[in-house]
């Protein structure tokens, strides 16, 4: 039976950043991710300020050489009938990027391997607690492998399955969901690398040009306000897109048509009721999840992954207060996020009778467990 100091569930940016930091600190780390290798993931915007986080992880040079599409800013139809342009050339940190998420996640995992982390892809991890930590069962391609870890970190995304098994509750502030679709065009004329954002009466859209040449379009609204059956049909979402003022003309100009089926995903704002417990902690979307409007999901995952790793490092060395400081950091991040979210949604006042927008004009009541 292989023995580890820390096992991490989930190999996205948060899990990988945690693994890299712990590996560099000299701990025996297992990183297990259950998703099929190369599966498409939404989460493509990489803001300019996040470059410093990659530099902290020692990954910036490799990232810049990987060929991610440059993003020079944002164009938004939000709070006004006239488009607003935010050009990154006027920002301190320069340009941003539209990520090839499969390549980005692969780079992070490769960096984890280089510092001695045992990376298991397409592997489902289950656990049983004991007095020294957790017995692990790793299932991959029909085979099972046993291991043991002193600590376990949930970086498995919004479901936070392990953290909830330990008694944590998911506290949500809204019911936002996203429906996304990849568009294809044979023309090859679209070169606009900016993120496009457009508010509509019952929600909002965003779109980016991916490194593959496909254009991602995503519609967001509250779960109880949607006709899910219609929107899960590519033609239904395409018809909804045809009503937009910014995105629809762009798609017509470049000859886009739906190229894949529609997929839905949770995009709500939420946090765990507790972020750590006996020999465990949560990080990334498992701990805090953000509205895509914030564009801070990946950056916060990298940032909190490093802080989670340092807190666990101190806890493994006998500091009983290390995780309390980490929990306080997450609480402050989420509180600031809610304040910023209210400010940005409050800018849109064109639809005074809209349930979606009226819900966001005032600060929500304390989040409720779900």
From TrEMBL:
GO terms for molecular function: catalytic activity; FAD binding. This is Mobile element protein. Signal peptide: none annotated. Residues 4-317 form the FAD-binding domain. It comes from Pseudomonas batumici. InterPro entries: FAD-bd, FAD/NAD-bd_sf, Flavin-dep_Halogenase_NPB. SUPFAM superfamilies: FAD/NAD(P)-binding domain.
């Amino acid at each position: 039976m292989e023995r580890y100091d820390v096992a991490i569930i989930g190999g996205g940016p948060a899990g990988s950043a945690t693994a890299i930091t712990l590996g560099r600190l000299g701990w025996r780390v297992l990183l297990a991710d259950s998703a099929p290798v190369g599966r498409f993931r939404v989460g493509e915007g990489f803001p300019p300020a996040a470059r410093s986080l990659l530099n902290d992880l020692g990954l910036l040079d490799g990232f810049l050489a990987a060929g991610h599409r440059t993003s020079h800013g944002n164009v938004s139809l939000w709070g006004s009938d006239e488009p607003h342009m935010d050009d990154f050339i006027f920002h301190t940190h320069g340009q941003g990027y539209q990520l090839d998420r499969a390549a980005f996640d692969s780079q992070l995992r490769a960096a984890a391997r280089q510092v001695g982390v045992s990376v298991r892809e397409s592997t489902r991890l289950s656990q049983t607690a004991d007095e020294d930590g957790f017995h692990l069962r790793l299932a991959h391609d029909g085979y099972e492998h046993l291991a043991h870890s002193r600590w376990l970190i949930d970086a498995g995304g919004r479901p936070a399955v392990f953290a909830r098994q330990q008694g944590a509750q998911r506290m949500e502030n809204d019911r936002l969901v996203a429906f996304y679709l990849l568009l294809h065009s044979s023309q090859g004329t679209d070169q606009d690398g900016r993120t496009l954002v457009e508010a509509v009466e019952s929600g909002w859209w965003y779109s980016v040009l991916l490194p593959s040449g496909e254009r991602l379009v995503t519609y967001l609204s509250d779960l109880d306000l949607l006709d899910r059956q219609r929107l899960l049909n590519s033609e239904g979402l395409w018809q909804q897109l045809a009503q937009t003022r910014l995105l629809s003309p762009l798609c017509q100009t470049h000859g886009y048509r739906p190229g894949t089926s529609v997929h839905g995903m949770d995009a709500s704002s939420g946090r765990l009721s507790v972020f750590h417990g006996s020999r465990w902690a949560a990080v990334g979307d498992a701990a805090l999840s953000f509205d895509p409007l914030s564009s801070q999901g990946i950056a916060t995952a990298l940032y909190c992954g490093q802080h989670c790793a340092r807190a666990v490092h101190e806890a493994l060395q006998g500091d009983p207060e290390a995780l309390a400081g980490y929990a306080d950091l997450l609480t402050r991040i989420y509180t600031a996020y809610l304040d910023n979210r209210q400010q940005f949604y409050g800018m849109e006042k064109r639809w005074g009778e809209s349930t979606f927008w009226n819900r966001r004009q005032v600060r929500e009541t304390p989040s409720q467990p779900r």
